Protein backbone atom coordinates (compact mmCIF):
# COMPACT_ATOMS: atom_id res chain seq x y z
CA UNK A 1 0.00 0.00 0.00
CA UNK A 2 1.33 3.42 -0.89
CA UNK A 3 1.66 6.18 1.64
CA UNK A 4 0.29 9.68 1.19
CA UNK A 5 2.01 12.93 2.13
CA UNK A 6 0.97 16.54 1.95
CA UNK A 7 3.42 17.53 -0.77
CA UNK A 8 5.05 20.91 -0.13
CA UNK A 9 5.81 21.23 -3.84
CA UNK A 10 2.36 20.36 -5.21
CA UNK A 11 0.55 21.89 -2.20
CA UNK A 12 -1.79 18.88 -2.03
CA UNK A 13 -2.04 15.30 -0.81
CA UNK A 14 -0.14 12.98 -3.11
CA UNK A 15 1.57 9.60 -3.18
CA UNK A 16 4.70 9.68 -1.06
CA UNK A 17 8.08 8.16 -1.79
CA UNK A 18 8.49 4.48 -0.94
CA UNK A 19 11.67 5.12 1.01
CA UNK A 20 14.10 7.89 1.86
CA UNK A 21 16.10 8.63 -1.29
CA UNK A 22 18.37 11.34 0.09
CA UNK A 23 20.59 11.08 3.16
CA UNK A 24 20.37 12.94 6.44
CA UNK A 25 17.94 15.45 7.84
CA UNK A 26 17.09 16.92 4.43
CA UNK A 27 16.37 13.43 3.13
CA UNK A 28 13.98 12.85 6.03
CA UNK A 29 12.25 16.17 5.30
CA UNK A 30 11.89 15.21 1.63
CA UNK A 31 10.53 11.78 2.56
CA UNK A 32 7.90 13.33 4.85
CA UNK A 33 6.92 16.34 2.69
CA UNK A 34 7.59 15.59 -0.98
CA UNK A 35 5.56 13.35 -3.31
CA UNK A 36 6.80 10.87 -5.87
CA UNK A 37 5.60 13.20 -8.61
CA UNK A 38 7.50 16.21 -7.23
CA UNK A 39 10.65 14.11 -6.75
CA UNK A 40 10.35 12.98 -10.37
CA UNK A 41 10.12 16.61 -11.49
CA UNK A 42 13.23 17.41 -9.47
CA UNK A 43 15.12 14.43 -10.96
CA UNK A 44 14.58 15.87 -14.46
CA UNK A 45 15.78 19.31 -13.36
CA UNK A 46 18.73 17.80 -11.55
CA UNK A 47 19.88 15.92 -14.66
CA UNK A 48 19.62 19.09 -16.74
CA UNK A 49 21.53 21.08 -14.12
CA UNK A 50 24.32 18.50 -13.86
CA UNK A 51 24.70 18.44 -17.64
CA UNK A 52 24.33 22.19 -18.14
CA UNK A 53 26.81 23.19 -15.45
CA UNK A 54 29.00 20.08 -15.87
CA UNK A 55 28.72 19.37 -12.17
CA UNK A 56 31.01 16.79 -10.64
CA UNK A 57 29.21 14.80 -7.96
CA UNK A 58 32.56 14.00 -6.32
CA UNK A 59 33.08 17.73 -5.71
CA UNK A 60 31.61 18.88 -2.37
CA UNK A 61 30.98 22.39 -3.76
CA UNK A 62 29.01 21.02 -6.70
CA UNK A 63 27.00 18.75 -4.38
CA UNK A 64 26.28 21.71 -2.08
CA UNK A 65 25.13 23.79 -5.05
CA UNK A 66 22.82 21.01 -6.23
CA UNK A 67 21.39 20.55 -2.73
CA UNK A 68 20.71 24.30 -2.51
CA UNK A 69 18.90 24.18 -5.88
CA UNK A 70 16.93 21.12 -4.77
CA UNK A 71 15.79 22.79 -1.55
CA UNK A 72 14.75 25.96 -3.41
CA UNK A 73 12.87 23.90 -6.02
CA UNK A 74 11.07 21.50 -3.69
CA UNK A 75 10.36 23.73 -0.69
CA UNK A 76 10.54 27.39 -1.79
CA UNK A 77 8.63 27.21 -5.07
CA UNK A 78 11.62 28.40 -7.09
CA UNK A 79 12.11 26.98 -10.53
CA UNK A 80 15.58 25.92 -11.59
CA UNK A 81 17.10 28.30 -14.11
CA UNK A 82 18.95 26.44 -16.79
CA UNK A 83 20.79 28.60 -19.29
CA UNK A 84 19.97 27.91 -22.87
CA UNK A 85 16.88 25.92 -21.93
CA UNK A 86 13.42 27.17 -22.78
CA UNK A 87 10.58 25.19 -21.27
CA UNK A 88 7.97 24.08 -23.80
CA UNK A 89 5.02 26.44 -23.83
CA UNK A 90 1.66 24.85 -23.05
UniProtKB/TrEMBL annotation:
It comes from the Bacteria. Keywords: Iron. The keyword Iron applies. GO terms for cellular component: cytosol. It holds the Pfam family Iron_traffic. GO terms for molecular function: iron ion binding. The keyword Iron applies. One of its GO terms (biological process) is cellular response to oxidative stress. InterPro entries: Fe_traffick_prot_YggX, Fe_traffick_prot_YggX_sf. Belongs to the Fe(2+)-trafficking protein family. Could be a mediator in iron transactions between iron acquisition and iron-requiring processes, such as synthesis and/or repair of Fe-S clusters in biosynthetic enzymes. Necessary to maintain high levels of aconitase under oxidative stress. HAMAP family: Fe_traffic_YggX. This is Probable Fe(2+)-trafficking protein. It comes from Pseudidiomarina atlantica.
Amino acid sequence: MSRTVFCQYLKQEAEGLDFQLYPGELGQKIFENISKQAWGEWQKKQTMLINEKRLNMMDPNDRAFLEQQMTAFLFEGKDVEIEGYTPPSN
